[in-house]
Design the sequence.
């Protein structure tokens, strides 16, 4: 056999392998999409062939008219956007101080931050519950925002601080000579340069609350205040099996994420790969 | 010249050679800010420090009361109404908070003495008192870091440190259902009792702990390794072959990473359902299997499925990482290998693989710690099920890992004391990994810490 034929067979095998993996990856995705548009409630009544049961949009109508889905979406969005904005402000301000000032106990504080970020935040679950109970933060969105914000700070302050350390200090010193105060230097000089890390921080802080389950489950009580993760989870508990409604709701959350990841995959490959490279 | 002459006049009653250091320090220790007022004539700063101590002293009876409560955790008062009884948990949390406040006060104390000494040193060097305008501007300059850090310190102390200390304390109490749940009953300090019963004292609990801990480690290791090599293989196959549809395949493979795990795991749970799941029904329809397979209801098979489904969800992350490092390998290396007559396989074996492995090693450690705490992957897929022999007592199912067990203990069983012990243990096991990981970061290596 000539070299060319071997190469062709090789490539065919590779594509066959990739196609099989593709089918495995896509199977649940396709099935969920078909469930969202299938009549009926439970997954048990559905055909094993995707889209084999006909087509309906009743589940989407159900979500928007009969449940608090819109409310859940709004709550999750409010929590995510506030957590993201507050994390950016607090973490970058803290990181700026850590990066540019010398003060008593600085080293100890940095070390404490490093050790604190090891703990997963659910470790303090009971205490957080009691603290929120005492300050009236249970069943409120701000209580949840406060938890996420505090949990985000140790790691992210470190991350932003490491980035700010790479920005030459001569820049802000020059501005100091021109008479700008610290806050102005921070807002008009340092922040614009730190934009890449701030964007990254804002995105990660925004996406986390969409998937978190433990804290909303613990803090929020009333159905109208639920977040998407808890609300969707309740569709497929043992008591009620509304897989089709769940699927419709799930698609609506997953779409923005998928679009975002598909668009940014090129950048992610380079930035993730770059960050993985050992110095 | 007149202003400088004026400030020359305002000499302090302190030696200029630094010999009054002890005097300044001792006065500062006697009362916060006293040194600033008496010796250094920095009234604004001194009064601010003094105010902190005065406020602290005004509250001291309350502070002492809270500390006593922390030590006793209240006494049982079965004859009075429930709402008036001592609430041990409030006492515990208030006590921990008061300890945190005392720690902050001590730090401010330390800073005040240190600041007095710094001011004295500056005075010795410059030989003159700062004008009030100058003092004000340094105060303003120094207030920026204080204001900038205040939200960070406040949030971290009260929502991270206090909860952690509280959890650690609960591990040494009997805070558990049914006998010790406030407000009906009080909680008491029990020393190391919980540790003893989880490590040998109580056969059922010790057995459950051992079982869950071993599965957690196996899970953490296999979940990481399978995802790592799964991702590596996909990245290599995509990277080494050239064909038209490559971007399409890549985009599809990223999908599991983009879908929130709450969604994907709940979907798999339903697809794999033993009785009505489409996977079993499909296999039966094709005649591949006769009776349905208990994917998630047989202990061993369920564990295997956890790892398999986690591979489905986790390989894209490592695929992206590996692709990133592979594109970063310089083409010169391959060029040199080509001249030496290396085959494609040799290229891969001796250049690509070692380089990628070396560069992604820290990620493996990070991913291991992540998987040990991967609540979602287990909770949403199996919910810890199927039940094991001891599940009714311990609430730990066959596929429960330590984190999901903590959740069950807290939410369903109200055994806060055991949950706290397990949380403390997870920390003890994971801390070295996390510290090692940080020791690999750039800022740590450059001595910026």
Sequence:
């Amino acid at each position: 056999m000539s070299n060319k034929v071997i190469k062709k067979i090789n490539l065919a095998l590779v594509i066959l392998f990739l196609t099989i993996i593709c089918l495995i990856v896509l199977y649940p995705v396709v099935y969920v999409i078909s469930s969202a548009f299938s009549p009926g409630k439970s997954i048990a009544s559905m055909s094993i062939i995707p889209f084999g049961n006909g087509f309906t949009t009743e589940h989407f109508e159900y979500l928007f008219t009969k449940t608090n889905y819109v409310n859940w979406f709004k709550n999750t969005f409010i929590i995510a956007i506030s957590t993201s904005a507050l994390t950016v402000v607090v973490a970058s301000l803290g990181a700026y101080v850590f990066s540019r000032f010398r003060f008593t106990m600085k080293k100890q504080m940095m070390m404490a931050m490093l050790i604190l970020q090891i703990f997963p935040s659910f470790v303090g679950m009971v205490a957080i519950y009691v603290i929120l109970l005492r300050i009236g933060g249970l069943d409120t969105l701000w209580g949840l925002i406060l938890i996420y914000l505090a949990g985000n700070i140790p790691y992210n302050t470190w991350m932003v601080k490491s980035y700010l350390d790479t920005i030459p200090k001569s820049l802000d010193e020059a501005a100091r000579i021109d008479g700008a105060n610290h806050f102005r230097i921070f807002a008009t000089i340092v922040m614009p340069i730190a934009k890449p890390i701030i964007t990254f921080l804002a995105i990660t802080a925004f996406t986390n609350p969409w998937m978190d389950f433990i804290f909303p489950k613990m803090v929020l009580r009333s159905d109208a205040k639920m977040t998407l993760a808890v609300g969707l989870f309740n569709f497929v508990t043992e008591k009620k099996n509304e897989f089709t409604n769940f699927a419709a709701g799930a698609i609506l959350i997953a779409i923005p994420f998928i679009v975002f990841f598909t668009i940014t995959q090129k950048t992610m490959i380079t930035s993730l790969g770059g960050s993985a490279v050992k110095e | 010249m007149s202003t400088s002459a004026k400030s020359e006049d305002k000499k302090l009653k302190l030696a200029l050679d630094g010999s009054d250091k002890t005097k300044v320090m001792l006065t500062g220790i006697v009362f916060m800010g006293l040194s600033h007022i008496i010796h250094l004539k920095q009234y604004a700063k001194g009064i601010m420090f003094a105010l902190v101590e005065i406020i602290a002293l005004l509250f001291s009876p309350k502070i002492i009361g809270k500390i006593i409560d922390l030590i006793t955790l209240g006494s049982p008062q079965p004859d009075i109404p429930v709402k008036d009884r001592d609430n041990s948990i409030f006492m515990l949390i208030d006590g921990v908070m008061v300890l945190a406040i005392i720690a902050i006060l001590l730090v401010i104390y330390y800073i005040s003495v240190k600041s007095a000494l710094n001011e004295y040193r500056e005075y010795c060097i410059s030989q003159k008192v700062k004008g009030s305008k100058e003092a004000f501007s340094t105060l303003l300059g120094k207030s920026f870091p204080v204001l900038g850090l205040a939200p960070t310190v406040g949030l971290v102390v009260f929502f991270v440190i206090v909860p952690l200390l509280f959890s650690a304390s609960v591990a040494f109490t009997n805070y558990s259902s049914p006998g010790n749940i406030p407000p009906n009953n009080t909680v008491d300090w029990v020393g190391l009792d919980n540790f003893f019963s989880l490590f040998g004292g109580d056969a059922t609990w010790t057995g459950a702990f051992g079982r869950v801990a071993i599965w957690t480690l196996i899970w953490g290791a296999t979940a990481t390794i399978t995802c790592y090599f799964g991702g590596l293989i996909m990245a290599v196959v995509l990277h080494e072959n050239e064909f038209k549809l490559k971007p399409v395949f890549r985009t599809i493979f990223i999908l599991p990473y983009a879908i929130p795990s709450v969604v994907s795991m709940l979907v798999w749970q339903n697809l794999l359902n033993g009785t009505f799941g489409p996977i079993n029904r499909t296999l039966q329809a094709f005649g591949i299997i006769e009776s349905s397979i208990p994917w998630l209801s047989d202990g061993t098979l369920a564990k295997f499925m956890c790892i398999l489904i986690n591979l489905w969800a986790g390989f894209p992350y490592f695929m992206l990482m590996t692709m990133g490092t592979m594109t970063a390998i310089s083409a010169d290396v391959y060029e040199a290998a080509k001249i030496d007559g290396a085959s494609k396989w040799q290229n891969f074996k001796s250049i690509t693989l070692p380089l990628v492995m070396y560069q992604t090693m820290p990620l493996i450690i990070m991913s291991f710690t992540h998987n040990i705490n991967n609540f979602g992957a287990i909770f949403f897929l199996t919910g810890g099920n199927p039940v094991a022999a001891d599940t009714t007592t311990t609430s730990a199912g066959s596929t429960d890992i330590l984190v999901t067990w903590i959740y069950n203990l807290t939410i369903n069983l109200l055994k806060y004391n055991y949950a706290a012990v397990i949380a403390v243990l997870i920390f003890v096991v994971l801390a070295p990994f996390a510290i090692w990981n940080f020791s690999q970061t750039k800022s740590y290596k450059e001595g910026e810490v």
User: Anything to note?
Assistant: Chain A has twelve helices and no strands.
